[in-house]
Amino acid sequence: MHKHFIKESNGKIPWHGRFYLYFGQDSMRNIGLEWVTFSRYFGFNFTIDHEGWNFGIRLLLFSLYLSFENFSFLNKISPKRVCCFDNKEFLVTDEREFSISVYDWMFSFIPWGHYHSWGSKDPWWVRGICFDIKDFLFGKMIYLSKDISERRKIVIPMPEGCYDGEMVVQENIWKRLRFPFWPFILKRYYCDIKIPQGVPFNGKGENSWDCGIDGLFSISFEIDSLDLKKAISKAIGRVVEHVTYSRLRHGTPSTEELDKWRNQVIDREILQETEQRTCSESQI
After folding, report:
1. For the chain, how big is the Rg over CA atoms in Å?
2. Does the N terminus or the C terminus of the chain have fewer Cβ atoms within 10 A?
3. Residue 88 and residue 167: Cα distance in Å, rounded?
4. Rounded Cα–Cα distance for residues 170 and 187 (Å)
5. Model's pTM, two decimal places?
6. Which residues, 6 or more positions from 9, have their beta carbon under 8 angstroms from its beta carbon?
7. Is the dihedral of CA 256, 261, 267, 269 positive or negative?
8. pLDDT tens digits, residue range 98-123?
9. pLDDT greater than 90 at residue 147
10. Residues near 51 by beta carbon (within 8 Å), at least 6 away in sequence
């Protein structure tokens, strides 16, 4: 039997930490205890997963979690479900959860739900109940967005050349249905940028669709001033910063790839202009 302590917080006082008691030098059977201070939540939960049983209690300023992992007798009495693989059926732990919690003006009650999964066709006692206290008292949240400036052309300078884009300043408002005034109203201003031809950079390469060259075609960010000159400079700077960061992280396309990208865009623009001209002449 041996123990293991992990201190998650800085300073001398362990405001957040973990303590494990292992049964056997090479055994994975253990009892774990974790504590967190200033959690701002209230509730109780009990979960069963493939590793063991877990209990948690959150009392606003203090949270405590207790776990029992890799105990064979707990695995025997845990609920099971049939799993099929390679035309063979076998039993696995049916991971379940019971929880009662209050957080961010939300009340949640799950009598016997599926742990880490949710299905709309499950009965209510599996799906759980979630009640929004703010929606009940003040009405549901409404989102409104409108353009408060004209769309302006911008030029984005990059080492290989300039790219054309357009930007507009938008006003986004979130307010409650029954109390559409302060302090129940939230107003934010965003700068929305569109880049029709895109600014190229290499993809992440994590999937088949993001291998090779990719591009930034739009971006939106919050601004703290309605000064249009500052908004334009920030918009151009944000695009250059985003593309430069992506190129430094995933690589810059070669000169041939950049030229091919820009030529394809020019050819596409010429084709679109030709189609529009042909359509206009046919209407005449």
Report:
1. 28
2. C
3. 58
4. 11
5. 0.63
6. 15, 16, 17
7. negative
8. 999 998 889 999 999 999 888 889 99
9. yes
10. 69, 70
Structure tokens at 63: 């949270």
Q: How far apart are CA 148 and CA 59, in angstroms?
A: 45
Residue 183: count of CB within 10 angstroms of its CB = 6
Phi and psi based region of residue 236 (left: phi greater than 0; alpha: psi -120 to 50; beta: remaining):
alpha
- Work out the mean pLDDT of the chain and round it to a whole number: 87
Please name every residue paired with 163 in a beta bridge, in sequence order, or none if there are none. 156
The label of the residue with tokens 């302060």 reads: 182
Helices marked H in the chain: 72-77, 124-127, 133-138, 228-250, 255-283
Sequence letter at residue 76 = K
For 55, list phi and psi in degrees, rounded to 5: -125, 145
- pLDDT tens figures, 55-100: 999 998 899 999 999 999 999 999 999 988 888 888 999 999 999 9
